[in-house]
Design goal:
Layout (H helix, E strand, L loop, with lengths): L5 H34 L17 H20 L7 H27 L5 H23 L6
Helix pairs in contact: 1-2, 1-4, 2-4, 3-4
Length: 144
């Protein structure tokens, strides 16, 4: 499959808006849950930006870009993997391993720049985004 016709783009954009909207509903509580423990840790006080100085458009924009390009990758590779829930799970896990887990393993072996718990919380957050997005993009509709 590709994005050759208007119908393909309409399907892609519909899935994109569903995936992005679903993820934004999940991401705010998930960010709070994962990173609030680190925010109040006195040893990491200089690592985090104060809440009053955060420009909230940045996390939303980063999620938007990631969900969009994940959709492009899944849509272009769709003919080579299984459709449905299994295909979405396999694609999400594969993308997470290649994009997040493997680089963090490498970074943790060679540097001590970030605390392990923060990196693994970030990996979990990004992997959840990839898994949710892949599942939504991989589900096949009746008219395809």
């Amino acid at each position: 499959m590709g994005l050759h016709s208007t119908r393909d783009w309409n399907r892609f954009l519909l899935r994109f808006f569903i995936a992005f909207g679903f993820w934004e509903v999940i991401s705010v509580p998930l960010r709070s849950l994962l990173f609030s423990a680190f925010y109040y840790d006195s040893s990491l006080r200089t690592f985090f930006t104060p809440v009053s100085e955060i420009q909230w458009i940045a996390p939303i924009l980063s999620d938007l870009v990631q969900v969009f390009f994940l959709g492009i990758v899944v849509t272009l590779a769709r003919s080579s993997f299984q459709f449905g829930i299994i295909g979405g799970i396999v694609t999400g896990i594969s993308f997470s391993i290649a994009g997040f887990i493997a680089p963090v393993f490498g970074a943790l072996q060679f540097t001590k720049s970030l605390p392990n718990k923060i990196l693994w919380a970030w990996v979990f957050y990004q992997s959840a985004l990839t898994l949710v997005g892949s599942l939504i993009y991989a589900i096949r509709s009746e008219d395809e």
